[in-house]
Structures are given as C-alpha cells and as structure tokens.
Please model this.
Amino acid sequence: MAVFDLYINKISAYVDDLKSKGRRVKIFEPAYMPGQVKELMPFLQGTESSAETILRSDTFLELGNPATSSTAFMLWTEKPGLIKDGRVTLIGPDIQESEGQNLPFGQILMLGGEELDEKEHESLELSSHIGSKIKGYMIRSMRQNLWARVSNKAAQNGFCFEILGEALMAIYKSDHPKIKAMETVFVTSNEADVRSLDSIAAQVEKINKEINKTNWQIKGYDIECALDCSTCSDKPVCDNIKEVLKEKSRK
Amino acid sequence: MSEQQQQPKLNDYVQEMLDNITALSKSDDPYDKVLVEYYLLRQARNARVKEAIAKGTPTASVGGNCVPELCVSLDMDVFQALEFPLFDAMMEGGLDGLHKLIDTSAEMLGDNMCTFIRLAGAAMELNQCPKGTVVIGMSSICEAGSALQQLVRTNPHYKEIPSVSVESPGRREGVPDEEALEYIAEQLKNDFVPFLEKYAGKKLDMDRLKFVCQESNEQLRLWWEYNELRRNKPCPSDWEVANFVNSVARYWGLGYPECKAWLKKLVDVCEQRVKEHKGITGINEKIRVFWFDFPPIVWGNKVWPWLGKEFGAVMVMDLYSDNPPHTYINTKDEKQMWKDLAKRSSYDFGMPRIALGSADLYAKDTVRVVKDLSCDAVIWPGHMGHKDAGALVNIVQEQCRNLKVPFLNLGCDLADDRYVSPDKIKDKIANFFQASGLA
Model:
C-alpha cells in the first residue's frame, strides 16, 4: 500500500459520514471527454505571467478566511483505480449561492498514476501554486491553510466549484502527464466539518515532511538537524573555527 | 545672533529624512499623505513611550516577539532595548553617530554577532537604553538574542529591573505540536500574567484582552490585505512602507485605534493605486525581487531608489514582511485563545517561525513568495547575524534553480554601511541583474 492510500480511503469514509449526517453533498461526474475543456476556457489562462489581485471591492466571496476554518491537502497514489477520475464532490453550499460570504473551506486533491512516486512529490506540491492560472480566483495563502477569493466577474460568468475542480484537474494534468486520474473534494458546509479534516491533514503533513526530508537528503541536504551544539556532528569543525578566530584576534 | 544662526546644524541623515518628509507633506498624492501620517504616528508614539518611562508609568522593554496583546491589555506600552539608543545616535550624529556606536559595540562584544543585538548590548553597557518597568522576552530564537537576555539580568544598570521570558520548544515537524502550545499557553497564563499584573498595578480584564486580540486580528487582516496588493504588477507600495506595516501591525501599533485606522487608510490608498495601475513613484517596474531576510532598514535607501531608477528593480517582499499564515486568535473559546496567543507569539512571526522550524520552511517560503508575487530574482543579504540561515543558503539556491529564478548571495551587514558600502552593493546587484539576463 502506498503512503497516502489509507488517507484516500479515509476521505471516502469522511464523505459518506457527512452524507449520512444529512449534509448536502453534490457529486459532479466529468461532463466532457478528456481534452475537451471548452467550458473552462473563460477561466483557464494557461500562464501565470501576470499577477492578478482581486480587490475587496471586486470580491464575490472568500473561502477559508482565517476568521473561519480552512484546510487543504493533496494525496497521491500509484493505483489510479482508487480515484474516480474527473469527479468533483462538493459538501455544502456552492459559490453562486454564497455572495458576500466567508465560507469555511476544505480542499482535498487526490491524484492517481502508476508512475507517481515520492520523487514526483515536490513537483506535485509546486503545482498547488496556481498563481493567476484560474481567472477570477486568487489564492491568498498556501500550505495547509487555504484562503481564496472569487471575483464578482468570475461569479457572473458562472464560476462554481465544479469549474474550480475541473480547472485544478486541468492544471495538474497538464503539469504532470503522469497523473492518470484526479478527483477533488470541496467542503464548505460548516467550520466543524472542515475542522474534522484536521487530524487527517496533520498526518498528511507529517508524511509530506518525511518525503521532502528524504528528497532533500538525496540531493545532499539535511533539512532537519539538531539545534543543540552538543549533539551536532559538526561541533569539532565549529570549535576549530572558533579557535582559529581566537588566534587571529590575538595577533 | 540671528535665529537661523542659533539653530544647530542638522546632520546629513536627519536633514535627508526631514527633506523627504517635507517633500511628502507638499505632495497631493494620497499615498504620500498616508506616509506623512505614519511619521506623525511614530513620532507621537515615541514621545508617549519616552514620557511614560520618564514618569515611571508602566512600560515593558521587550526582546524578540513579546505577546504585545498582553502588555497592551494591561495598558503597558512596549519598546525595544535598541530602538531609542539607535534613533538617538542617528539623530545626534547621523551615520557617524551610528558608526561610533557600532565601533564601540565591536570593542565591547566583538564583531562576530548580529550587529543589531551587539548594538543593543553596547547601548545597555553604556547605560543608554531606557529603563522600562519590566523586561520581557521569548526564549532563544538566536544565541545572540539569548545572550542579550542574559546581559539584561547581569548588567549593573538593568539587573534590578524585573524580567521574565517564555520558553518556546523548538519544532521538528515544522508546525508546533499541541503539547508545546499548551506548555507555552500555561507559561503565559501562570507566569506572564501575574508578573505583568504585579508591575502594571492592575488585574488583567479578560474582556479587555479579548478586545485587544480582536483588534490584533483586524490589524493582521489589514496587513494581509496590504501584502496581497503587493502581488500586483506594478507593485503599489515599496519595501520601506512594508516594514512600517510590519512594525505597526505586530509591534508598537497593536491595539491602538489610530494605528488600525492608519493601516486601513494605507490599504485603501494602495487599492486605489492598483486600480489605477500605479507602481512606486518614479520607477518603471521591470524586476521584482524577493529579499530573503530582514530588510536593509539602515542603508537600503542608499541602494534601492537607485536600483529602481536604473533597472526598474523593486523589492516586492522581504522575509519579515511576508505574511505566512499567522494564527487568527480565537476569542470565542478562552482555552483556544491562550493557545493561539502562544502560537502567534512563539512560532508565527518572522524569525521565531523560521529559526525554530526546519529548513523545509525556508524552501517552502521561497517557492510561495516567488510564485505568488511573481518574483524575478531572490537576493540573500547574507549578513553575519543569521548564521543559521547562512547554513541554508544552498537549499534556497537549489529551490531557486528549480524555479528558474536567479539567486544572489550578496554579503553585507545589517547596519554597518562600511562593511560593504552601498556603492559596492549597488555594483554587485547591478552585475547580478546583468549577468542573469534580467537587465
């Protein structure tokens, strides 16, 4: 079993649990054949060459503002069969019905591909910095907390979570041809539902750290060394340098 | 003797500062007017703190980040040990005054530690630091910082001043664990509060603390908003103002309504500049730079205006004005509020965040800032203070290589413009821009 498979199953159980609790759950299956992204064209800009700032006055709604709860993480597996390719699951209200609101926000991206492995992890993480690739959608901060804005204009043009999910899938698949299946889950129902993802997010973050640490080690860097001089293997070198400096200052 | 003859001649540094403020005052640009308001606010705050110290009204001299929310809730103004001696030295002697203090500090404490910490230590030894009612600090974000706290406790001029500091456990996972946060929260409640109450001469009113935390959240939100605006091309506001925002929102302006009003006004003005596609006055923005450390507040104004005019270079972000996800203090749940205060003060802000975290944070911050702010180059100042960061330079360089963004390891001093002169720095950065094809 690959590192994140357990958590992919947990997300499936999480969605089922909220369904059983009566939350409004919408599932969007892919409405188009792969490669046909006509519906996304108004929103996908393709490049991130120009920074787009969505001003407060141009904001239709905010997602995951720190005053509410927010979490975001990515899971990948080398078993594409675990992923329902193209599926977008939304738990809670959609963008169009939430004008002027600040919705709690959970975003889970699940990617599958036989050739995905730990070596791809860093570049998969890089894709989360979408810059201005989605027109009218601005991510304000990254890593575990995700805080985003949707512009008035995008909302007028029909921007919704189905489109956001499809746009993210198009970006990831275009950046990483090894991704063969991708599924997204968005949670906007309430703060508690988003917070209940925190324990999974924390575990995922620990795994991310370990993978990143190993990848840096392969490149020859130790990104997590002891802060205590007495346990550091380089202490003799530092001591030597100090002695040389002392000698130098005596002369 | 005429009135003009009686006035002492101002040094070049002060004269330049006054000329700048005078020019801003005459400008019709709302952005310039907001900057003038900043200088006035800062002046009023300095006067208020100095008066409080002179009268013996409770104040707190702080090192590092210091849970300002608690001090403000107990009506204690906060100030930093070095703040006034540095300001006074420059007001009295300009750069010569600063150089004199730097040289004295090197004689007293050696020249191989952070210049700012060294200056603070020297000012303390020279009995130049104002004596507040109490001294508070956070533990060991750097060895020099810890040395400074020890100095407070042993220096004959300051050792009688009651002091307290919070111990923050280091992190191994990049984010603090619940146990660490509870440990710090307990210290805040059980050690900090009774200590501060004793010297403030009043009990902490929990409703007042909640209000101040809400104000702190709001100032943070405005800081975030301001930083988001800097993503825009062209960037509507320059690095010095970003540093003002940082200090107001996280330090001396926290909890003061006039400071919140100033932040709001600045955000409004910058939003308008974004709408009008206005960049920094007089600069045709071409190169967006991420300054990967503390901004060059002492000598930066001798370098950046020139880089702006010559190359269209703009410092769109520095590591300490960056807005990593600071904790929003939850005032609805008291237990959580203490933990949020613990996290905010010990792990979120600039140096503690990265120094107590793993190197992964440096790598991730590089990616986030470069991508989100569309940076064309990363400059690592490489001053001697942040030796821990110096050990990570290759990691950041590697990350920049992945991002296909040129990286410069500059080499300079935080405050001493003689160590590497502004002209030399200009030359190095100009060569870097040219060699990397940015200019």
